[in-house]
Amino acid sequence: MIHPILLTPKSCEEDRPPIRILRGVPLAPLTIHHAETKAAAQAAINVFKEKYGIKYVPAVACLAKDEEALLAFYDFPAEHWDHLRTSNPIESVFATVRHRTVRTKGALSQKTVKIMVFTLIRAASKTWRKLKGANQLPLLIEGVKFVDGVASSDARENRAA
Predict the structure, then answer these.
(1) Which residue has the higher pLDDT, 73 or 108?
(2) Domain definitions of the chain by residue range
């Protein structure tokens, strides 16, 4: 299992403690990451800061620095949370492309590389999972505000008017 602190944004990579130290940190970040509400997640962050702030300074500093970004998914529909919590969705898309371009070892022209990349991504897209809660996308596009994964009532009233 990947330790939850490793799921923090790449901007904290240099401040992240080594894996051997992370083994000592309990899985408290999971309680942050899987809290039901944004307030509960912020409370769990505060508990983590108080409990481990002295012993794991870099991890706590990284968590504090990117707290808002880490909790941004609470402003989207709850059905989308699984997709938004993914550590690196872009990487899986381009893994196939990277694998093929490494194998060609620079033997392609710019034009043929573009064609190959487009073809590989189009072929890979056939196996992608569908977005959970796709019915919520029109609400997001219209600008409806979500609080803890649920459309706020005042936003729905404004939309109805």
Answers:
(1) 73
(2) 4-73, 76-161
